[in-house]
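Troubleshooting: if your tokenizer reports a length mismatch, compare your output against this known-good record of 610 residues.
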Amino acid sequence: MNESGVSTPMAPFVLSIGTDVAPANTALNILCGVSVAMLAQTVATTEIDLLIVFMIAAGVGIFVAKVGRFPYTIALLIAGFGISVIQTVTGIDLFPFELSHDLILLALLPPLLFEGAATTDINSFRANLVPILAMAVPGLVVSVLALGFVGQLAFGFPLLISLLFAAMILPTDPVSVLALFKELGAPERLSTLVEGESLLNDGVGVVIFTALLALAEEAQQSGTPAAELLTPSRIGSTVLDIAISSGGGLVVGLVAGYAVYRVMVNLDEHMTEIVLTLILTYGSFLLAEHYFHVSGVIATVVAGLLIGNRGAEHAMSPQTKLSVFNTLETAAFITNTFIFVAIGATTPVRNLVQYAGPILIAIPLVLAARAVAVYPLTAIANQVTDRKVPLNYQHVMLWGGLHGSIPIALALGLDASGLGGPLVTKLKAMVFGVAAFSLVVQGLSMAGLLDRLGIVTQSDDERLYELLSGRERATDAALEAAKNLHRRGDIPGNVYEDFTAEYEREQDDLHEAISQLMRENPELRREELLVGERRLLQREKGAIQDAMRDGVIADDIGDRLLEEVDLKLDRVNDGRSTVDEREENYEEFWRTQANEFGLDVDPRREGADD
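Known-good structure output:
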């Protein structure tokens, strides 16, 4: 020990530590530098890979533009198939990305679901809720059971494996359906029926698939026959899981959507509201799936319906509405572009050839299993609702139930399962094969089917009206933005006047063009009259509800007024207007009460005086 009280043998020890620090720090710095360099290289490689994907998409887009009315998404898929064939023949890796279960469900699906739900008219959805729910829940279950039991004989699978295949392939794909029906310009009600089912049945399908996969793994590992595993208690547990998952997703979607809606109501900043919408898109899905373990699909769909309807109506300025929906449309387009190229390019061509026999057997059986659900359940739904689903619509519901990204995501989820490798390879090949037929053959023949069934798709007049009305909304938003900028002093008065004069001139020309188009197309005018009337009635309903909450009117009077608005909405949803060009075709409750009180409020008096 030295004079300071420190033992001398410690000195070499301390020195040895000090001499080792520098090399350690140097090694750490080298490792950090290598990691950063590798990360930068990875980012650059990913950017190049994405650039290749979008160059392919641009080439397809140019081809579609030159050829004419050819579904863009199907063209992307065929281009992807071509890449897959070239990769198989030459061994050259042209498409560097690999699709995975998580990539589809967590990254690609939420924006497509949200955009599809946000652009769905909630009134049309509600009016067709009975047939939509019939097909989305019991319809899917019936189809799975039918294909599962027949598949035992057709494919030689055990019962559980056959049911598992049915649960993978039968959920209809909102990604494919939404893209195709928008491009074809299908009638609004038909689109609502097919898209609504596709948006809802995936949550049910995922729960059924998860339960069957667990049973199949248990049977595979223990050698227990399916009959012993499919006990009434297990079946009851699965049904309860479906109900909890679906109901929980509904609640999460409502709560998350309403929270964002309340923030938007008190906010007028379109860029921030775009960010909030994107947070809700992924947040509702992740919140439901990973924290509450309920259906993220249903949560995202419900949140999208709420923001796209009530949010757009009451919480967004014209500029915000334009910005938010343009952003959602762009995100959906980019995601669709990637996913359709990816599905085609990652299709296992060798496996499709190897298992061509089972695939060819599966294609008609999948259609037959869907038919077993579509026609009987739609007939039952027609008995309990006033709005019947016509037979030609039922044919489209059968053929238009496309199977794409959702079945493929579920099939890719088999890789992490405890099932045997050869069995997984065969199941994946069958799912990819049926999905390829569904997307290409059914997708390409959809326009011809609509024509043969006499179902009118979007006409040139309607497309022109959409163009004119879209531009009219854009000029409204531009004028509103210019007014706000001028009020804040961000643009001088003379510049504001120039802007205003230019946009007002364009608005006058647009109004004249729209008026002329309406005069030449009375049916188009009638459709737009019904759409506008529906929106105004929704505003009426909201104002009455606000008055009841504020105590301005008593609940009994408010309920009577709400009942009347609902009656008008029912008429409008059935295609019957409550007004015409000169007078109202519906006598309100307040008029009868005022007349009984002795007040002269005859709605026909003004027309008679003219």
